[in-house]
Write a structure and sequence with these properties.
CATH superfamily: Rhodopsin 7-helix transmembrane proteins
Number of domains: 1
Radius of gyration: 21 Å
Number of strands: 3
Strand content: under 5%
CATH class: Mainly Alpha
CATH architecture: Up-down Bundle
Strand order of the largest sheet: 2-1-3
Length: about 300
């Protein structure tokens, strides 16, 4: 018997999921599969295409990898629940979900910062771009993203390990969420909720504000560029900025709001953990000629 079982009456939780409608469940199954395959296609395309070797695509590869992993944290469990009507998750499984959610979310934040910095150097300091954005720096930024994600997730797990459960184990959610566990805990969790909100929500709000300022600086510097350069820069930055907004707004809403779980929180979490990773590949490829051409070449080679 583990330490958790000795100090708690609850060793597993019941996840109510997204919906109990069997027709909607089948649609969700297809959507989740599409999410994973679309991100996998981007990672494969950029990795195998010699024309997509710029730092922007290097970071995009890791962003797609994170998004594919992000959906994999909850999607396999959701698919199993949809197919076999299983709704329980063990304490260890719940901890694993929380760790991976925060690890990947924090890593994605750092990758988005790196991508914003890459666009700043490319547009504001084009003559020094190859010198500044060298391969070693790009690899270092990715390592920082992984390490930062691990540190942030470890803090969340330490907070979770302090919770005590003595009865209710039904979570009205499709995944294990820290605030949902706070509602089930039988001890006073108000201060802990505030600390977590300050840790995660404060970080999201601060970094989101910094990224808004950085993109404002980038766009203001385009006044001295030619029309063609402006068009390309606006297209690229527009895609980056859209992804940033889609990522950070749900994050800020979730952690900066009241420390409680409402029905709308489930919708926001679905948007954050499922829909945003699905939209990212579309946003980055729909107006990117180089990526689309590389995908066509890869498909032709695969067919032939």
């Amino acid at each position: 018997m583990d330490v958790f079982s000795l100090s708690n009456n609850v060793t597993e939780f019941v996840l109510l999921g997204l919906t109990q409608n069997p027709h909607v469940q089948k649609i969700l199954f297809i959507v989740f599969l599409f999410i994973f395959l679309s991100n996998l296609l981007i990672v494969t395309t950029i990795s195998l295409s010699p024309t997509l070797s710029a730092p922007m695509y290097f970071f995009l590869t890791y962003l797609a990898l994170i998004d594919a992993s992000f959906t994999s944290v909850t999607t396999p469990k959701l698919i199993i629940d949809l197919l076999f009507q299983r709704t329980t998750i063990s304490w260890g499984g719940c901890l694993t979900q929380i760790f991976l959610e925060h690890f990947l979310a924090a890593s994605e934040i750092i990758v988005l910062i790196a991508m914003a910095y890459d666009r700043y150097v490319a547009i504001c300091k084009p003559l020094h771009y190859t010198t500044i954005m060298r391969q070693g720096l790009c690899q270092l930024l990715v390592v920082v993203a992984w390490v930062g994600g691990i540190l942030h997730a470890t803090v969340q797990i330490l907070f979770t390990m302090d919770l005590t459960f003595c009865g209710p184990n039904v979570i009205d959610h499709f995944m294990c969420d820290f605030f949902s566990l706070l509602e089930l805990a039988c001890s006073d969790t108000f201060r802990l909720g505030v600390v977590v909100a300050a840790n995660s929500g404060g970080m999201c709000l601060l970094i989101f504000s910094m990224l808004l300022i950085s993109y404002t600086v980038i766009l203001s510097s385009l006044k001295s560029h030619g029309s063609e350069e402006k068009r390309k820069a606006l297209s690229t930055c527009g895609a980056h900025f859209t992804v940033v907004v889609l990522f950070f707004l749900p994050c800020v809403f979730t952690y900066m709001g009241p420390v409680a779980t409402y029905p709308v929180d489930k919708l926001v979490a679905m948007f954050f953990a499922i829909l945003t990773p699905m939209l990212n590949p579309i946003i980055y490829t729909v107006r990117n000629t180089e990526v689309k051409n590389a995908m066509r070449s890869l498909m032709k080679k695969t067919v032939t």
